[in-house]
Amino acid sequence: MIVPILLFACALLVRILFNVYVTGIDNAGLDLYPDGKDYDALGWSLATGSGYEINHAPNTFRPPGYPMFLAAVYALFGHSVAAVKVLQSILDAATCVMLLLIGERLFTRRVGVIAAAIAAVYPFLVVYTGFMLSEALFVFLSTVFLYTLVRLRENYTWRWAAAAGLVLGVMNLTRPVTLLLPALLFFWLWLEVRAKWRAAVIAGVLAIWMLVPILPWTVRNYLVTHSFILIADHHWAALYAGNNSKILQDPEKIGGWVQPEGVEDYRAAYLAFIRHTLVHEPWEMVRLEFHKLHRFWSIVPTSSRTTFRDTLISFCSYGVLLPFVVGGMARSMKMPQPPWLLFFWILNFCLMALILYGSTRFRSPIEPALLLFGALALEKVWVSRRVGT
Q1: What digits encode the pLDDT tens for the residues 265-317?
Q2: Residues 380, 236: Cα–Cα separation, whole Å
Protein backbone atom coordinates (compact mmCIF):
# COMPACT_ATOMS: atom_id res chain seq x y z
CA MET A 1 0.00 0.00 0.00
CA ILE A 2 2.91 2.34 0.67
CA VAL A 3 4.11 2.30 -2.96
CA PRO A 4 0.86 3.66 -4.50
CA ILE A 5 0.68 6.36 -1.80
CA LEU A 6 4.27 7.45 -2.44
CA LEU A 7 3.75 7.49 -6.20
CA PHE A 8 0.57 9.52 -5.82
CA ALA A 9 2.27 12.00 -3.46
CA CYS A 10 5.31 12.45 -5.73
CA ALA A 11 3.15 12.85 -8.85
CA LEU A 12 0.92 15.39 -7.11
CA LEU A 13 3.93 17.38 -5.89
CA VAL A 14 5.39 17.54 -9.42
CA ARG A 15 2.08 18.80 -10.81
CA ILE A 16 1.53 21.39 -8.10
CA LEU A 17 5.08 22.72 -8.55
CA PHE A 18 4.51 22.86 -12.32
CA ASN A 19 1.32 24.85 -11.88
CA VAL A 20 2.81 27.23 -9.32
CA TYR A 21 6.19 27.93 -10.90
CA VAL A 22 5.73 27.24 -14.65
CA THR A 23 2.20 28.08 -15.77
CA GLY A 24 1.09 30.12 -12.74
CA ILE A 25 -1.55 28.74 -10.41
CA ASP A 26 -4.13 31.37 -11.45
CA ASN A 27 -3.37 31.31 -15.19
CA ALA A 28 -5.92 29.29 -17.17
CA GLY A 29 -3.88 29.47 -20.38
CA LEU A 30 -6.79 30.83 -22.40
CA ASP A 31 -4.40 32.75 -24.66
CA LEU A 32 -2.78 29.45 -25.72
CA TYR A 33 -5.93 27.33 -25.85
CA PRO A 34 -8.96 29.52 -26.56
CA ASP A 35 -11.41 26.59 -26.37
CA GLY A 36 -10.89 26.89 -22.62
CA LYS A 37 -12.94 30.11 -22.76
CA ASP A 38 -16.02 28.11 -23.76
CA TYR A 39 -15.37 25.46 -21.12
CA ASP A 40 -14.99 28.12 -18.44
CA ALA A 41 -18.13 29.98 -19.49
CA LEU A 42 -20.20 26.80 -19.63
CA GLY A 43 -18.89 25.56 -16.29
CA TRP A 44 -19.63 28.85 -14.56
CA SER A 45 -23.08 29.02 -16.18
CA LEU A 46 -23.91 25.57 -14.83
CA ALA A 47 -22.51 26.40 -11.38
CA THR A 48 -24.63 29.55 -11.11
CA GLY A 49 -27.81 27.78 -12.22
CA SER A 50 -28.10 29.47 -15.61
CA GLY A 51 -27.99 26.23 -17.57
CA TYR A 52 -25.64 24.98 -20.26
CA GLU A 53 -25.33 28.22 -22.21
CA ILE A 54 -22.97 30.93 -23.36
CA ASN A 55 -24.20 34.53 -23.56
CA HIS A 56 -27.69 33.30 -22.64
CA ALA A 57 -27.80 30.95 -25.65
CA PRO A 58 -28.10 27.17 -25.09
CA ASN A 59 -24.93 25.45 -26.27
CA THR A 60 -24.70 22.21 -28.24
CA PHE A 61 -21.24 22.79 -29.72
CA ARG A 62 -19.10 21.66 -26.74
CA PRO A 63 -19.47 18.21 -25.14
CA PRO A 64 -20.69 18.58 -21.54
CA GLY A 65 -18.35 16.33 -19.54
CA TYR A 66 -15.55 18.77 -18.79
CA PRO A 67 -17.83 21.79 -18.22
CA MET A 68 -19.74 19.66 -15.70
CA PHE A 69 -16.46 18.92 -13.94
CA LEU A 70 -15.71 22.66 -13.86
CA ALA A 71 -19.22 23.37 -12.59
CA ALA A 72 -18.68 21.00 -9.67
CA VAL A 73 -15.37 22.71 -8.84
CA TYR A 74 -16.89 26.19 -9.10
CA ALA A 75 -19.87 25.20 -6.97
CA LEU A 76 -17.52 24.07 -4.20
CA PHE A 77 -14.73 26.66 -4.43
CA GLY A 78 -16.09 29.58 -6.43
CA HIS A 79 -14.80 30.76 -9.80
CA SER A 80 -11.25 29.63 -9.00
CA VAL A 81 -8.71 28.65 -11.63
CA ALA A 82 -6.37 27.53 -8.85
CA ALA A 83 -8.95 25.05 -7.56
CA VAL A 84 -9.38 23.62 -11.07
CA LYS A 85 -5.63 23.15 -11.42
CA VAL A 86 -5.26 21.49 -8.03
CA LEU A 87 -8.09 19.05 -8.72
CA GLN A 88 -6.74 18.32 -12.20
CA SER A 89 -3.38 17.63 -10.56
CA ILE A 90 -5.07 15.21 -8.15
CA LEU A 91 -6.78 13.42 -11.04
CA ASP A 92 -3.53 13.19 -12.97
CA ALA A 93 -1.67 11.86 -9.93
CA ALA A 94 -4.44 9.26 -9.59
CA THR A 95 -3.80 8.37 -13.24
CA CYS A 96 -0.29 7.29 -12.22
CA VAL A 97 -1.76 4.96 -9.57
CA MET A 98 -4.18 3.53 -12.14
CA LEU A 99 -1.18 2.78 -14.36
CA LEU A 100 0.37 0.78 -11.54
CA LEU A 101 -2.84 -1.23 -11.12
CA ILE A 102 -3.16 -1.88 -14.86
CA GLY A 103 0.52 -2.73 -15.27
CA GLU A 104 0.61 -5.27 -12.45
CA ARG A 105 -2.45 -7.08 -13.86
CA LEU A 106 -1.39 -7.05 -17.51
CA PHE A 107 2.31 -7.66 -16.88
CA THR A 108 4.03 -7.64 -13.46
CA ARG A 109 4.07 -5.47 -10.35
CA ARG A 110 7.50 -4.17 -11.38
CA VAL A 111 6.23 -3.05 -14.79
CA GLY A 112 3.35 -1.22 -13.12
CA VAL A 113 5.67 0.58 -10.71
CA ILE A 114 8.08 1.58 -13.52
CA ALA A 115 5.24 2.90 -15.69
CA ALA A 116 3.70 4.82 -12.78
CA ALA A 117 7.08 6.27 -11.75
CA ILE A 118 7.72 7.56 -15.28
CA ALA A 119 4.17 8.92 -15.46
CA ALA A 120 4.75 10.87 -12.25
CA VAL A 121 7.23 13.13 -14.08
CA TYR A 122 6.18 12.59 -17.71
CA PRO A 123 5.77 16.02 -19.37
CA PHE A 124 2.96 14.99 -21.74
CA LEU A 125 0.80 14.11 -18.73
CA VAL A 126 1.91 16.90 -16.41
CA VAL A 127 1.42 19.73 -18.91
CA TYR A 128 -2.35 19.35 -19.33
CA THR A 129 -3.00 19.91 -15.62
CA GLY A 130 -1.93 23.51 -16.17
CA PHE A 131 -4.63 24.47 -18.66
CA MET A 132 -8.41 24.59 -18.75
CA LEU A 133 -8.64 21.63 -21.12
CA SER A 134 -10.38 18.28 -20.95
CA GLU A 135 -7.19 16.20 -21.32
CA ALA A 136 -6.44 15.62 -17.62
CA LEU A 137 -10.00 14.47 -16.91
CA PHE A 138 -10.23 12.38 -20.08
CA VAL A 139 -6.89 10.62 -19.55
CA PHE A 140 -7.84 9.75 -15.97
CA LEU A 141 -11.17 8.34 -17.16
CA SER A 142 -9.28 6.44 -19.87
CA THR A 143 -7.11 4.66 -17.31
CA VAL A 144 -10.16 3.81 -15.20
CA PHE A 145 -11.79 2.43 -18.35
CA LEU A 146 -8.72 0.36 -19.25
CA TYR A 147 -8.65 -1.00 -15.70
CA THR A 148 -12.28 -2.14 -15.97
CA LEU A 149 -11.45 -3.88 -19.25
CA VAL A 150 -8.44 -5.58 -17.67
CA ARG A 151 -10.74 -6.86 -14.92
CA LEU A 152 -13.26 -7.92 -17.58
CA ARG A 153 -10.43 -9.80 -19.32
CA GLU A 154 -9.80 -11.71 -16.08
CA ASN A 155 -13.46 -12.41 -15.34
CA TYR A 156 -16.10 -12.01 -18.07
CA THR A 157 -19.02 -10.89 -15.92
CA TRP A 158 -21.84 -8.47 -16.71
CA ARG A 159 -20.75 -6.33 -13.76
CA TRP A 160 -17.41 -5.46 -15.33
CA ALA A 161 -18.97 -5.06 -18.80
CA ALA A 162 -21.52 -2.63 -17.34
CA ALA A 163 -18.84 -0.73 -15.40
CA ALA A 164 -16.71 -0.39 -18.53
CA GLY A 165 -19.70 0.81 -20.54
CA LEU A 166 -20.68 3.44 -17.99
CA VAL A 167 -17.13 4.83 -17.82
CA LEU A 168 -16.95 4.84 -21.62
CA GLY A 169 -20.20 6.81 -21.75
CA VAL A 170 -18.80 9.46 -19.40
CA MET A 171 -15.61 9.56 -21.48
CA ASN A 172 -17.63 10.27 -24.62
CA LEU A 173 -19.52 13.03 -22.86
CA THR A 174 -16.08 14.53 -22.17
CA ARG A 175 -14.52 13.93 -25.58
CA PRO A 176 -16.60 11.94 -28.10
CA VAL A 177 -13.64 10.22 -29.76
CA THR A 178 -14.42 6.71 -28.49
CA LEU A 179 -17.98 6.33 -29.74
CA LEU A 180 -16.92 3.62 -32.19
CA LEU A 181 -14.64 1.86 -29.72
CA PRO A 182 -17.15 -0.96 -28.90
CA ALA A 183 -16.79 -2.12 -32.51
CA LEU A 184 -13.01 -2.41 -32.10
CA LEU A 185 -13.46 -4.04 -28.71
CA PHE A 186 -15.51 -6.76 -30.38
CA PHE A 187 -12.37 -7.85 -32.26
CA TRP A 188 -10.33 -7.60 -29.04
CA LEU A 189 -12.85 -9.77 -27.21
CA TRP A 190 -12.91 -12.23 -30.11
CA LEU A 191 -9.14 -12.64 -29.74
CA GLU A 192 -9.46 -13.05 -25.99
CA VAL A 193 -12.47 -15.38 -25.64
CA ARG A 194 -12.07 -17.05 -29.08
CA ALA A 195 -15.84 -17.19 -29.49
CA LYS A 196 -17.38 -14.73 -31.95
CA TRP A 197 -20.92 -14.73 -30.56
CA ARG A 198 -19.79 -14.39 -26.96
CA ALA A 199 -17.53 -11.50 -27.97
CA ALA A 200 -20.45 -9.86 -29.80
CA VAL A 201 -22.72 -10.19 -26.75
CA ILE A 202 -20.15 -8.70 -24.36
CA ALA A 203 -19.35 -5.83 -26.76
CA GLY A 204 -23.08 -5.24 -27.23
CA VAL A 205 -23.69 -5.09 -23.48
CA LEU A 206 -20.80 -2.65 -23.14
CA ALA A 207 -22.23 -0.46 -25.92
CA ILE A 208 -25.69 -0.43 -24.33
CA TRP A 209 -24.30 0.66 -20.97
CA MET A 210 -22.19 3.28 -22.76
CA LEU A 211 -25.43 4.89 -23.96
CA VAL A 212 -26.91 5.14 -20.45
CA PRO A 213 -25.03 8.37 -19.53
CA ILE A 214 -25.26 9.70 -23.09
CA LEU A 215 -28.98 9.42 -23.88
CA PRO A 216 -30.21 11.92 -21.23
CA TRP A 217 -27.93 14.50 -22.83
CA THR A 218 -29.22 13.55 -26.29
CA VAL A 219 -32.78 14.17 -25.04
CA ARG A 220 -31.66 17.55 -23.68
CA ASN A 221 -30.18 18.45 -27.08
CA TYR A 222 -33.41 17.52 -28.83
CA LEU A 223 -35.50 19.61 -26.45
CA VAL A 224 -33.19 22.58 -27.07
CA THR A 225 -32.71 22.29 -30.85
CA HIS A 226 -35.57 20.00 -32.00
CA SER A 227 -32.97 17.97 -33.90
CA PHE A 228 -30.97 14.83 -33.19
CA ILE A 229 -27.54 15.64 -31.69
CA LEU A 230 -26.07 12.66 -29.85
CA ILE A 231 -23.55 14.63 -27.77
CA ALA A 232 -22.33 17.78 -29.56
CA ASP A 233 -22.64 19.16 -33.06
CA HIS A 234 -19.04 20.28 -33.55
CA HIS A 235 -17.97 17.13 -35.41
CA TRP A 236 -18.65 18.39 -38.94
CA ALA A 237 -16.62 21.54 -38.25
CA ALA A 238 -13.79 19.39 -36.84
CA LEU A 239 -13.92 17.07 -39.84
CA TYR A 240 -13.76 19.95 -42.30
CA ALA A 241 -11.01 21.72 -40.31
CA GLY A 242 -8.67 18.81 -40.98
CA ASN A 243 -9.92 17.87 -44.44
CA ASN A 244 -10.12 20.71 -46.91
CA SER A 245 -8.38 21.94 -50.07
CA LYS A 246 -6.70 24.84 -48.29
CA ILE A 247 -4.82 22.59 -45.87
CA LEU A 248 -3.47 20.47 -48.74
CA GLN A 249 -1.72 23.55 -50.10
CA ASP A 250 -0.13 24.60 -46.82
CA PRO A 251 3.07 22.63 -46.02
CA GLU A 252 3.01 23.90 -42.41
CA LYS A 253 -0.62 23.02 -41.72
CA ILE A 254 -1.10 19.80 -43.69
CA GLY A 255 -2.05 16.96 -41.41
CA GLY A 256 -3.25 19.42 -38.77
CA TRP A 257 -6.21 21.75 -38.95
CA VAL A 258 -7.19 25.25 -40.02
CA GLN A 259 -10.08 27.24 -38.63
CA PRO A 260 -12.82 27.17 -41.30
CA GLU A 261 -13.95 30.61 -42.45
CA GLY A 262 -16.97 31.58 -44.50
CA VAL A 263 -18.45 28.08 -44.47
CA GLU A 264 -22.17 27.84 -43.85
CA ASP A 265 -22.61 24.07 -44.15
CA TYR A 266 -19.62 22.12 -42.79
CA ARG A 267 -21.19 18.78 -43.60
CA ALA A 268 -21.68 19.60 -47.27
CA ALA A 269 -18.22 21.15 -47.57
CA TYR A 270 -16.53 18.14 -45.95
CA LEU A 271 -18.39 15.56 -48.05
CA ALA A 272 -17.69 17.54 -51.24
CA PHE A 273 -13.97 17.61 -50.42
CA ILE A 274 -13.87 13.86 -49.69
CA ARG A 275 -15.73 12.97 -52.90
CA HIS A 276 -13.58 15.22 -55.07
CA THR A 277 -10.26 14.11 -53.55
CA LEU A 278 -11.02 10.38 -53.59
CA VAL A 279 -12.18 10.48 -57.22
CA HIS A 280 -9.83 13.03 -58.77
CA GLU A 281 -6.81 13.26 -56.45
CA PRO A 282 -6.53 9.99 -54.47
CA TRP A 283 -2.78 10.40 -53.92
CA GLU A 284 -3.44 13.77 -52.33
CA MET A 285 -5.67 11.99 -49.83
CA VAL A 286 -2.88 9.48 -49.14
CA ARG A 287 -0.46 12.38 -48.63
CA LEU A 288 -2.89 14.06 -46.24
CA GLU A 289 -3.34 10.88 -44.17
CA PHE A 290 0.42 10.37 -43.98
CA HIS A 291 0.90 13.86 -42.57
CA LYS A 292 -1.88 13.27 -40.02
CA LEU A 293 -0.10 10.20 -38.67
CA HIS A 294 3.22 12.06 -38.74
CA ARG A 295 1.77 14.82 -36.57
CA PHE A 296 0.11 12.31 -34.25
CA TRP A 297 3.36 10.41 -33.58
CA SER A 298 5.80 13.31 -34.02
CA ILE A 299 8.65 13.50 -31.52
CA VAL A 300 8.65 17.28 -31.84
CA PRO A 301 5.33 19.06 -31.09
CA THR A 302 3.91 20.39 -34.34
CA SER A 303 2.11 23.44 -32.97
CA SER A 304 3.13 26.84 -34.30
CA ARG A 305 3.54 27.89 -30.63
CA THR A 306 6.24 25.27 -29.99
CA THR A 307 9.42 26.73 -28.50
CA PHE A 308 12.94 25.32 -28.36
CA ARG A 309 12.31 24.40 -24.72
CA ASP A 310 9.20 22.43 -25.73
CA THR A 311 11.16 20.63 -28.44
CA LEU A 312 13.97 19.71 -26.06
CA ILE A 313 11.59 18.46 -23.36
CA SER A 314 9.64 16.39 -25.89
CA PHE A 315 12.79 14.84 -27.34
CA CYS A 316 14.22 14.00 -23.90
CA SER A 317 10.97 12.38 -22.71
CA TYR A 318 8.75 11.01 -25.47
CA GLY A 319 11.66 10.79 -27.92
CA VAL A 320 13.79 8.75 -25.52
CA LEU A 321 10.84 6.58 -24.48
CA LEU A 322 9.68 5.73 -28.01
CA PRO A 323 12.35 3.06 -28.80
CA PHE A 324 11.48 1.34 -25.53
CA VAL A 325 7.79 1.47 -26.48
CA VAL A 326 8.55 -0.36 -29.72
CA GLY A 327 10.71 -2.85 -27.83
CA GLY A 328 7.98 -3.39 -25.24
CA MET A 329 5.40 -3.99 -27.97
CA ALA A 330 7.65 -6.61 -29.55
CA ARG A 331 8.30 -8.26 -26.17
CA SER A 332 4.58 -8.32 -25.31
CA MET A 333 3.81 -10.29 -28.47
CA LYS A 334 5.90 -13.17 -27.07
CA MET A 335 3.77 -13.38 -23.94
CA PRO A 336 1.35 -16.33 -23.56
CA GLN A 337 -1.50 -13.79 -23.47
CA PRO A 338 -0.46 -10.63 -25.37
CA PRO A 339 -2.02 -7.35 -24.18
CA TRP A 340 -4.21 -6.94 -27.26
CA LEU A 341 -6.30 -4.43 -25.32
CA LEU A 342 -3.50 -1.84 -25.42
CA PHE A 343 -2.96 -2.38 -29.15
CA PHE A 344 -6.65 -1.84 -29.93
CA TRP A 345 -6.71 1.21 -27.65
CA ILE A 346 -3.84 2.77 -29.59
CA LEU A 347 -5.46 1.77 -32.89
CA ASN A 348 -8.67 3.64 -32.01
CA PHE A 349 -6.87 6.96 -31.63
CA CYS A 350 -4.75 6.40 -34.72
CA LEU A 351 -7.99 5.95 -36.67
CA MET A 352 -9.44 9.10 -35.09
CA ALA A 353 -6.35 11.01 -36.20
CA LEU A 354 -6.80 9.70 -39.75
CA ILE A 355 -10.46 10.72 -39.75
CA LEU A 356 -9.99 14.13 -38.11
CA TYR A 357 -6.43 15.50 -37.95
CA GLY A 358 -3.10 14.79 -36.32
CA SER A 359 -2.07 16.43 -33.06
CA THR A 360 0.00 15.61 -29.99
CA ARG A 361 -3.10 16.51 -27.95
CA PHE A 362 -4.93 13.65 -29.68
CA ARG A 363 -2.13 11.36 -28.50
CA SER A 364 -2.67 12.13 -24.81
CA PRO A 365 -5.13 9.24 -24.14
CA ILE A 366 -2.65 6.66 -25.42
CA GLU A 367 0.32 8.01 -23.45
CA PRO A 368 -0.50 5.64 -20.53
CA ALA A 369 -0.43 2.66 -22.92
CA LEU A 370 2.89 3.84 -24.36
CA LEU A 371 4.30 4.15 -20.84
CA LEU A 372 3.24 0.58 -20.05
CA PHE A 373 4.96 -0.78 -23.16
CA GLY A 374 8.03 1.30 -22.40
CA ALA A 375 8.08 0.00 -18.81
CA LEU A 376 7.87 -3.58 -20.10
CA ALA A 377 11.05 -3.04 -22.14
CA LEU A 378 12.79 -1.23 -19.29
CA GLU A 379 11.99 -4.12 -16.95
CA LYS A 380 13.71 -6.46 -19.43
CA VAL A 381 16.78 -4.20 -19.42
CA TRP A 382 16.78 -4.08 -15.62
CA VAL A 383 16.45 -7.87 -15.28
CA SER A 384 19.20 -8.44 -17.87
CA ARG A 385 21.58 -6.17 -15.97
CA ARG A 386 20.78 -7.95 -12.69
CA VAL A 387 21.48 -11.33 -14.28
CA GLY A 388 24.67 -9.97 -15.85
CA THR A 389 25.97 -8.83 -12.48
Answers
A1: 889 999 999 999 999 999 999 999 999 999 999 998 776 677 888 888 899 89
A2: 45
